[in-house]
Design goal:
four-stranded mixed beta sheet, 11 strands, Collagenase (Catalytic Domain), 684 residues, 28 helices
């Protein structure tokens, strides 16, 4: 995963620490042999060989759109979070303390009787503000008041909430020592513009379902003429979608680097009263903006002027209801689930309310919970060991750069500077948010969510004019994920992902490097993927490549695009190799670096054969088993359209690009995954 948001950590010496001084017992090898399907040749389908028995016997839980190893680790974190959140209120903590805020937020969300009794009353002020809009200036002001800062342009290229635009606050592309606001396209209720413009039968069905859902939501709120209003909202959102850039175009940082002033906004994107909008959003004092999708912002602004005021009011009313549905009476919550989860993702059953409560507490009070989480569940020994693995990965990547025969010395120097200054955060941030000023009440779930969104927005705006915090984290410790931050030249590895089977301190080097090592290598490699390679060691968008090196990189990237575009995940549905390129580069380069780091950690002493598997075989098996995954068809179709990651089974096949895999599993020509040496993609 990557986010567009610099730091420094010294590269260790070339002497590798001995992280695993002696072979562990067989039961701690870190791979599960029972998950394999031995009837499948590794060279025909490595994912099925590694995970086939698991896939045949595993059922996706009724309340999930998918399941897999990530879900197993997520469930562990979820249970821990549940215990921590419930314990937070056990001792009647003092008002204003983090524990009290956590307890009150959870209690409010779980108070379904109170939620039913209050009905739409908590939203009445917002709905009245929309109803009282009398002019396009009023509309601009209302839209500005709704603006929130919780978007990343590389991971959420469409801001699909009630906001017409998204806001992202981080360093400027050309000047990473300065914080600026980024404006992004938004305004859609479905996950992507393709849902509106694609001519496939599936998308046509989704459009019909969405329009019916809009009408049902409005009807539930007591609004008249719902069918006509839903039709107008759908027509407006179709125009919004038509004006937007697709996801592949949105990931081009050069096209996104469009600095402008507020005055230029008014002239370059006429139609919206930008003065009123920016003033209401608290951005009227900002001298510079970066417009991520310039043509889209221009098109959306023009729609504000051209489309009827009443249509915009209907659109705003619906999205106000839609965004708060989870905090409203059960009828609203069920409607929301029925469309977004059951229809779009094929999930038959709503998750238990306590689980959804935990998700929302973590979303709005993440650092408050995270600080307690790491104190209880992330021992210092794990942090030290994982820092050692990360250092090995950095050293391995540095050596791989040295060994590149196609890269000019000048380009190598710049690449090595990025590695040397890459800041690796393990477990948790160095500083915690204190949520000062955020009001959380035990009887106001809607208000808690709205105030938390406003608090986060003000927190982000508070960065303007202040020194850059290059150690800032963009994930909470209890998140099962990891992230690369190109503008900070930094990585975040939250505590919750640093758990078995991704990382097991009892397992051997083969398993840990094949799983969490490949994950760490993946995130390091994002600094050198098709987007990350555009940024220098200081986090500045700058070309540091010689022309010849750039051509070689682009040619290798094209081969990877073609490789992944050939994967057919459903009949007639193939992976978008261009959309997933950055993640695929990171998978290939990260796995190669993890293999080198694994070998370096052994200091020339190979691991013993255990249960018939060599250390190398266990390394690659651990990698593939870290991608065991099953997804419902509807969710898989949505992923192909909206996600920059290839599906997990195809990611497990990354091994086919590494020479040592062929040696480890004796893969021969004629087997389905076999690639001739010259066809294996080697980028880093």
């Amino acid at each position: 995963m990557k986010m567009l948001v610099l730091g420094s950590v010294a590269l260790i010496s070339s002497t590798m620490p001995m992280l695993f001084s002696s072979p562990p017992p067989a039961q701690a090898i870190g791979v599960n042999l029972a998950l394999r399907d031995l009837a499948v040749k590794p060279g025909d389908d490595f994912n099925e060989y590694a995970n086939g028995a698991w896939r045949k016997t595993t059922e996706i839980p009724a309340d999930r759109s998918s399941t897999g190893v990530g879900f197993e680790v997520f469930e562990k974190a979820e249970k821990r979070n549940a215990d921590l959140i419930r314990e937070a209120g056990a001792g009647k903590p003092a008002p204003g303390t983090p524990q009290r805020m956590i307890a009150d937020y959870y209690a409010a969300y779980m108070d379904t009787a109170g939620i039913e009794k209050r009905g739409l009353a908590p939203l009445q002020q917002r709905l009245s503000t929309i109803a009282e809009i009398r002019s396009k200036t009023d509309l601009a002001r209302a839209l500005g008041q709704q603006l929130r800062a919780d978007v990343d342009p590389l991971n959420a290229t469409n801001f699909w909430t009630e906001n017409l635009f998204g806001l992202f606050v981080t360093q400027a592309l050309n000047d990473p020592a300065r914080t600026v606001p980024y404006l992004l396209q938004g305004g859609l209720g479905m996950p992507d513009r393709e849902y509106y413009v694609s001519d496939t039968p599936e998308m046509a069905e989704h459009r019909a379902s969405y329009q019916a859902y809009v009408a049902d939501m409005l009807k539930l709120a007591g609004i008249s003429e719902t069918a006509a209003r839903a039709e107008r909202i759908m027509a407006l959102e179709t125009k919004i979608a038509t004006a937007q850039l697709d996801r592949t175009a949105s990931e081009d940082v050069h096209k996104a680097n469009n600095p402008c002033s507020a005055t230029q906004l008014s002239s370059d994107a006429p139609g919206l009263d930008w003065n009123a909008y920016l003033s209401a959003a608290g951005l009227d004092k900002q001298p510079t903006f970066i417009i991520w999708q310039a043509s889209a912002i221009k098109g959306l602004s023009a729609l504000v002027a051209s489309e009827p005021l009443e249509t915009w009011k209907d659109w705003s009313t619906f999205h106000t209801l839609n965004r708060s549905a989870a905090y409203l009476p059960k009828a609203y919550d069920d409607l929301h689930f029925g469309f977004y989860d059951k229809t779009l993702r094929g999930t038959p059953q709503q998750r238990d309310r306590w689980k959804r409560a935990i998700t929302n507490v973590n979303a709005d009070l993440g650092d408050a919970v995270g600080k307690i989480y790491v104190a209880k569940y992330f021992p210092p020994s794990s942090k030290v060991e994982l820092q050692g693995i990360a250092k090995n990965l950095l050293a391995a990547f540095d050596r791989r750069v040295d060994a590149l025969d196609w890269m000019a010395p000048a380009t190598k120097k710049q690449a090595k500077a990025k590695i040397e200054t890459l800041r690796v955060g393990v477990g948790y941030p160095e500083t915690w948010r204190d949520y000062k000023g955020l009001v959380i009440r035990p009887d106001d779930p809607v208000g808690n969510a709205l105030r938390a969104g406003e608090w986060e927005y003000r927190h982000q705006l508070g960065k303007f004019g202040k020194p850059i915090d290059r150690s800032e984290w963009w994930m909470t410790p209890q998140t099962v994920n990891a992230v690369n931050l190109p503008l900070q030249n930094a990585l975040n590895f939250p505590a919750a992902i640093l758990e078995a089977p991704f990382f097991d301190p009892k397992a051997d080097a083969a398993a840990n490097y094949g799983s969490i090592g490949a994950t760490i290598g993946h995130e390091i490699s994002h600094s050198f993927d098709n987007t990350g390679a555009e940024f220098n060691a200081a986090g500045k968008l700058e070309n540091w490549w010689t022309p010849e090196d750039q051509v070689h990189f682009q040619q290798a990237s094209k081969r990877l695009i073609d490789q992944y575009s050939a994967y057919e995940v459903l009949p007639g549905v193939k992976v978008n190799g261009e959309l997933t390129l950055g993640e695929n580069i990171a998978d290939v380069a990260g796995l190669a670096a993890a293999y080198d780091a694994y070998k370096m950690s052994l200091h020339g002493t190979p691991l013993p054969v255990v249960d018939g598997l060599t250390g190398d075989q266990r390394f690659f098996l651990a990698f593939a088993q870290s991608w065991r995954h099953k997804t419902r068809e509807a969710a898989l179709r949505q992923q192909i359209v909206t996600d920059g990651h290839a599906p997990a089974p195809e990611r497990a096949q990354t091994v086919r690009n590494l020479d040592p895999w062929y040696e480890a599993y004796d893969v021969k020509p004629g087997e389905k995954l076999y690639l001739a040496p010259e066809d294996r993609v080697r980028i880093w």
